[in-house]
Design brief:
It is a single chain. This protein is an all-alpha fold. It has seven helices and no strands.
Length: about 120
């Protein structure tokens, strides 16, 4: 299924259907999943309709023992080689955004970040 051409609402609905099928495959009721996840039954019902907050979705995935699938859903993103070269061992803290030519803000990030302690990347 090509999700790239679908709207966010349609993708959310598809994920909700997949969540429901995972629950049914485990022969669990919405109430049983809700109890395992520490949620109300209506939260499970809404998630299966594609209308859930991220924390609710994660709680349901934990209740269904599907959290291992999260790395497939959104794999960890290492910094690009270009970012690594620019950072020279420092971990990136924010996006640079779009800047206009001749901007008066040049060097502003350097002044703000001087006192920030940087941790070494764990990779």
């Amino acid at each position: 299924m090509n999700l790239e051409l679908k709207s966010p609402a349609a993708i959310a609905e598809t994920l909700g259907q997949r969540l429901k099928q995972a629950r049914l495959n485990r022969d669990l009721t919405q109430q049983e999943v809700a109890e395992r996840a520490g949620l109300g039954r209506k939260a499970v019902l809404n998630a299966e309709k594609g209308k859930a907050q991220l924390e609710v979705l994660i709680a349901i995935l934990q209740a269904l023992d599907l959290t291992a699938q999260l790395d497939n859903f959104l794999p960890p993103q290492p910094p690009s080689p270009i970012q690594l070269a620019k950072l020279q061992g420092k971990q990136r803290q924010r996006a640079s955004g779009q800047r206009g030519k001749g901007s008066d803000n040049e060097g502003e990030d350097d002044e703000q970040g001087e006192d920030d302690e940087q941790e070494e990347p764990a990779w």
